[in-house]
């Protein structure tokens, strides 16, 4: 029979056990082994059945067992010790508290998804896992972050397979009362709420749930409340679900509602108000509009409020392709803003102008969330060195006249939260070498360039560790494979073969990620005969574990999954290659440590960063990857292998796949498998173990989320906080007025004449020439601009490469025609073809970049031709 109504009945803990409830509600347990061990000891069988979820565990333990634990002296002492450790962790000084005082009092970090733990399934893939790792690392470092997201009633989807291998989606309902979250309440005990105005006089209400991630609060907005109509209740139904209007409402709730939730949280708890707002991808971009509206309500005009908001905003882009960005029809956005909807005091045209693609190559009727994010943030970054370069090129239309390398988008390479992803066995090996506290500090705070202690671990210990982890993965795979086949309709009697799936002594390759076409799930199937030869090699076989979800609306991705599954179902190879459905955090935490090789073969340069290989590396797994994302930046032959690419502009996609697949097979046949199976005098694979050692000692410190968050603090958050403090109401008005004056006057800014002290176009290395430039500044003065000489080696088209920029200084005052003379040195510091040019840029103390306004003036074509501005 089916129940007509459902309740969540919470256990009543005996007084001596009250601290265990606090431990369950702080998600630090998801990366703190001692806390998980404590919960496991409550009831090992129920702990396993709960999927390692303390809230579900405590809800299932019989009162008699709770009473028994309440009288168990050793258990209570252990509970007190673990609870005391959490108290010290959440209140004591950490890395951030030892830094200079000018750091921000608080930072608000907005993301559409957060992957904290499988017990809180609010993530779909890399963006969410990265956001979760960002919060955890911030907690470990003591960074005063406030996370902001949405609480989706169905999360992302659960994945199963049909009998013929087609992906099936399931959307189980999540009851917040059964999740490790609590409702934020007003002092009178009523739920804290935020509301957004909708067209037609309606409202979108949302309550605020709080997930405590160590020291970091994560606020999650949930629209499934009685005050809403059925349509509004469904706004937070699914992660990345629904049509355009549905997604727009989700992003308005995240950005606008999220700022209101932060204000509510700070009011109720006394938490310092954020000085910096960090937008993790464009989904939360509307937060800038809400903050502009707040300042307008305090008396600032729109332009001044915009400058104040930009000063304290950081925007991180994660996509290397325009198609990956949320874009909305102009009319849809216009309908949701203005007098009859949200932010009624702000002119709708001003809202639209922030997101419109009003640049060459843009689509003028589309509102682009990433473009708005960039226009509302004074500081922006990509998520790897290569992705920063790709982003500068992709968004260069917003900064016309500047070379792509001068576009003000930097990069902070992603990292991963080691305590979450490092297997306990790996941690124990490190702790045995240097002590538990030093090992924990190395994984969280980081700061060193290398982990030298790894060099002292005996080869035998590393070899045995890798085999233990591989053996655990084999058991995990068999269990999951058996469950998957039962879901596909197989009977237990048909599944005896699963007991022979995988071998703990065979080279194991992992491939797990989302399944968009550019990640090329099926590249390994390009030549099936060669793959079969590798899988079934009599002396050097390989085995492959594959997992991944295609987006529910992506039939092309589902076909790739089906193609892989059908190959893995072949009785000839099914003991050597498996596809595991329902890839998520719980599976990943077993998969990364158990693999010897982590495979990644995207179309370069479409992988913004790709952090799965980092998690594998922290467990001693070697990477075999296309040079894309983070691997392009940090690859060394000591850490693994680079798959050669054929990414020339004219390469046919099918031919490219053929070439790169053949290169992958060659690497596996000729270099990877021989290295794994080769034995030295000790009987161990000495050269393989040495690569594992190098991966741990040299790559390990680089890939930490602690390193990443420290970079955000030092390079982005701290400068943004200083800029925020410097851009108070008066300064914001002055800056807005100055920008308006500069934009109006810029057509009159020109370079009129350039001359050097050189009498010939041939000069010797080390020569310094005198440069004299005459410029017209129109209604501007020397304090409003920088005049620069840009020089360097030039290519065949006279484009300057690896440029050096030197400021020129004004000499005297303006002449009768209002022109100014600037002078300075030009150093000929490189041999070969050498060129220079002169340019004028806006200059103001509150600009974060001289390219910020997208304005630049240089010599006219006629002047260049007449002056011959080229030394050879």
From TrEMBL:
PROSITE patterns: PHOSPHORYLASE (PS00102). This is glycogen phosphorylase. Its cofactor is pyridoxal 5'-phosphate. Keywords: Allosteric enzyme, Carbohydrate metabolism, Glycosyltransferase, Pyridoxal phosphate, Transferase. The lineage of its organism: Bacteria, Bacillati, Actinomycetota, Actinomycetes, Kitasatosporales. GO terms for molecular function: glycogen phosphorylase activity; pyridoxal phosphate binding. It catalyses: [(1->4)-alpha-D-glucosyl](n) + phosphate = [(1->4)-alpha-D-glucosyl](n-1) + alpha-D-glucose 1-phosphate. Residues 13-120 form the DUF3417 domain. Coiled coil: none annotated. It holds the Pfam family Phosphorylase. It comes from the Bacteria. The keyword Glycosyltransferase applies. The modification N6-(pyridoxal phosphate)lysine is found at residue 615. Its EC number is 2.4.1.1. Gene3D superfamilies: Glycogen Phosphorylase B. Phosphorylase is an important allosteric enzyme in carbohydrate metabolism. Enzymes from different sources differ in their regulatory mechanisms and in their natural substrates. However, all known phosphorylases share catalytic and structural properties.
């Amino acid at each position: 029979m089916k129940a007509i109504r459902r309740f969540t009945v919470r256990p009543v803990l005996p007084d001596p056990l009250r601290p265990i409830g606090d431990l369950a509600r702080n998600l630090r347990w998801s990366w703190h082994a001692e806390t998980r061990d404590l919960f496991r000891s409550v009831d090992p069988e129920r702990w396993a059945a709960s999927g390692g979820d303390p809230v579900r565990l405590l809800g299932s333990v019989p009162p008699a067992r709770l009473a028994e634990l309440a009288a168990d002296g050793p258990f209570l002492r252990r509970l007190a010790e673990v609870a005391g450790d959490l108290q010290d962790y959440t209140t004591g000084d950490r890395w951030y508290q030892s830094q200079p005082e000018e750091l921000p009092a608080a930072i608000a970090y907005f993301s559409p998804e957060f992957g904290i733990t499988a017990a809180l399934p609010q993530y779909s893939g890399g963006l969410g896992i990265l956001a979760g790792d960002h919060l955890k690392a911030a907690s470990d470092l003591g960074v005063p972050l406030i996370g902001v997201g949405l609480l989706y009633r169905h999360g992302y989807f659960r994945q199963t397979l049909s009998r013929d291998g087609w992906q099936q989606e399931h959307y189980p309902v999540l009851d917040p009362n059964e999740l490790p979250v609590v409702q934020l309440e007003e002092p009178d005990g009523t739920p804290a709420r935020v509301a957004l105005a909708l067209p037609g006089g309606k409202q979108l209400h949302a309550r605020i749930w709080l997930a405590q991630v160590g020291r970091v609060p994560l606020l999650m907005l949930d629209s499934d409340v009685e005050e809403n109509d059925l349509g509004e209740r469904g706004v937070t139904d699914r992660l990345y679900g629904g049509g355009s209007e549905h997604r727009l409402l989700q992003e308005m709730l995240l950005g606008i509602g999220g700022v209101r939730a932060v204000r509510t949280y700070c009011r109720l708890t006394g938490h310092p108000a954020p000085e910096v707002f960090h937008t993790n991808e464009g989904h939360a971009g509307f937060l800038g509009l809400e903050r502009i509206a707040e300042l307008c309500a305090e008396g600032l005009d729109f332009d001044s409020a915009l400058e104040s908001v930009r000063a304290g905003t950081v925007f991180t882009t994660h996509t290397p392709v325009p198609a990956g960005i949320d874009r909305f029809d102009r009319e849809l956005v216009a309908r949701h803003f203005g007098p009859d909807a949200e932010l009624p005091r702000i002119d709708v045209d001003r809202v639209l102008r922030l997101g419109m693609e009003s640049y060459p190559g843009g689509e003028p009727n589309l509102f682009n969330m990433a473009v708005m994010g960039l226009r509302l943030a004074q500081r922006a970054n990509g998520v790897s060195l290569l992705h920063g370069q790709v982003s500068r090129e992709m968004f260069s239309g917003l900064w016309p006249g500047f070379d792509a390398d001068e576009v003000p988008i930097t990069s902070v390479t992603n990292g991963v939260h080691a305590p979450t992803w490092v297997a306990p066995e790996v941690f124990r090996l490190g702790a045995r070498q240097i002590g538990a506290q030093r090992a924990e500090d190395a994984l969280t705070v980081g700061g060193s360039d290398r982990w030298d202690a790894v060099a002292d671990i005996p080869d035998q210990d590393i070899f045995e560790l890798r085999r233990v982890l591989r053996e655990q993965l084999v058991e995990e795979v068999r269990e999951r494979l058996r469950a998957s086949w039962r879901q596909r309709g197989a009977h237990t009697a048909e599944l005896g073969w699963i007991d022979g799936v995988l071998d703990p002594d065979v080279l194991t390759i992992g491939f797990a990620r989302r399944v968009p076409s550019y990640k090329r799930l099926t590249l390994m199937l390009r030549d099936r005969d060669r793959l079969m030869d590798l899988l079934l090699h009599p002396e050097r076989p390989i085995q492959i574990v594959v997992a991944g979800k295609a987006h529910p609306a992506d039939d092309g991705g589902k076909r790739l999954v089906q193609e892989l599954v059908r190959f893995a179902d072949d009785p000839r190879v099914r003991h050597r290659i498996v596809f595991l459905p329902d890839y998520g955090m719980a599976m990943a935490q077993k998969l990364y440590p158990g693999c010897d090789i982590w495979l990644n073969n995207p179309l370069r340069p479409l992988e913004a960063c790709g952090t799965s290989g980092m998690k594998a590396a922290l467990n001693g797994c070697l990477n075999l990857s296309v040079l894309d994302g983070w691997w392009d930046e940090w690859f060394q032959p000591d850490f693994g292998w680079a798959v050669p690419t054929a990414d020339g502009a004219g390469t046919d996609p099918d031919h490219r796949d053929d070439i790169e697949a053949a290169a992958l097979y060659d690497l596996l046949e000729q270099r990877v498998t021989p290295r794994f199976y080769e034995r030295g005098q000790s009987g161990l694979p000495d050269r393989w173990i040495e690569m594992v050692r190098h991966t741990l000692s040299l790559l390990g410190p680089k890939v930490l989320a602690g390193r990443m968050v420290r970079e955000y603090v030092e390079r982005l958050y701290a400068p943004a906080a200083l800029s925020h403090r410097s851009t108070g109401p008066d300064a914001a008005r002055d800056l807005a007025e100055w920008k308006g004056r500069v934009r109006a006057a810029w057509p009159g800014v020109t370079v009129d004449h350039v001359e050097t002290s050189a009498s010939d176009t041939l000069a010797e290395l080390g020569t310094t020439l005198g440069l004299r430039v005459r410029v017209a500044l129109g209604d501007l003065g020397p304090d409003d601009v920088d005049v620069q000489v840009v020089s360097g080696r030039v290519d065949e088209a006279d484009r300057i490469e690896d440029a050096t920029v030197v400021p020129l200084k004004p000499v005297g005052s303006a002449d009768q025609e209002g022109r100014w003379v600037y002078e300075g040195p030009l150093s000929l510091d490189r041999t070969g073809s050498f060129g220079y040019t002169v340019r004028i840029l806006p200059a103001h103390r509150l600009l974060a970049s001289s390219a910020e306004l997208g304005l630049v003036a240089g010599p006219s074509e006629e002047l260049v031709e007449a002056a011959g501005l080229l030394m050879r």
